[in-house]
Amino acid sequence: MKKVLASIGIGNASVDTILPSDTVYPGETIDADVQIVGGDVEQEVGTIRFEIETRYRTEEGYREADVDRFTLTEGLTIQPDEETVREVTIDVPYSTPVTYGNVDVWIETELDIDLAVDPEDTDYLDVQPTPRLQTVFDAMDGLGFSLRTAECEADPYGRYTAGRGFVQEFEFRASSGEFRGRVDEVELVSQPGPDELDLFVEVDRRGGMLSELAETDERLTRTTITSTDTERVRAELRSLIEQHS
């Protein structure tokens, strides 16, 4: 009877991934422990699966997406009430969204147990910007722009990425400074990497009704950020916004 109950998740083994901290940075490698506790019966664990996940907005609502996934292929037999720990190294991809605004990112751990409900564990992450992206945020603040929204959105036509399906867009409003009254908003989409950050910049000019209806008040450009010098990046962004405002 215990085996039957375990097959539907009652008295099943459990799993818990212990992270050194829930605060992480894209591009970072973290070491974690996976704690597995046996249930009421002996069970064979084939693999341990990990997924870094988020959700993004579509026209139909929100959809979940994998940022990355990998598997520990070492199998094990877990006895009733036995406790065991497996070490795992997790690479946080550079493409991981930062958890600003309405954005959630989590690690889901799953035990693959034959003929049973697979036990799961979910750990939410606090994903902070890379140094270059933080420099961009500081530069925008210095230009009088305040961050209004940070949303993961569908990118069905691959406007910014090929095959991934979604991007994270940061929307800034000119609340003070030289661009207040000249620019409605600036939208940024970043693609961080180990040595540089590709940045798509869309400037929405403060135009008239006809230009807004025709979307002729929007200008999209692209630049590459290699520096973490805030003054240098601020000057570069000022020049880009000037050219397209």
Brief digest:
By secondary structure, this protein is of the alpha+beta class.
Task: Please describe the biggest sheet, giving its number of strands, its sense, and whether it closes into a barrel.
Answer: 6 strands, mixed
Structural class: alpha+beta
Number of helices: 4
Rg, please? 23 Å
User: What is the class of the largest domain in the CATH system?
Assistant: Mainly Beta
Fraction of helical residues: 10-25%
Shape: elongated
- What is the residue-averaged pLDDT? 86
The total count of strands amounts to: 14
Secondary-structure element pattern, one letter each: HEEEEEEEEEHEEEEHEH
Q: Spans with pLDDT under 50 lasting ≥5 residues?
A: 1-10, 207-217
The CATH architecture of the largest domain can be named as Sandwich
How would you characterize the overall build of this protein?
It is a single chain. The chain has helices spanning 2-7, 131-142, 209-213, 230-243; strands spanning 14-18, 23-24, 29-37, 43-58, 61-72, 76-78, 83-91, 105-113, 120-127, 145-154, 166-174, 183-192, 197-205, 218-225. The protein has 245 residues and is α+β, with helices and mostly antiparallel strands. It folds into two domains: 2-127, Immunoglobulin-like, CATH 2.60.40.640; 131-243, no CATH class. Strands 2, 4, 5, 6, 8 and 9 form a six-stranded mixed β-sheet that branches. A five-stranded antiparallel β-sheet has the order 10-11-12-13-14, covered by helices on one side. Helix 2 packs across helix 4. It is elongated and about 70 Å long. Residues 1-10 and 207-217 have low confidence and may be disordered.
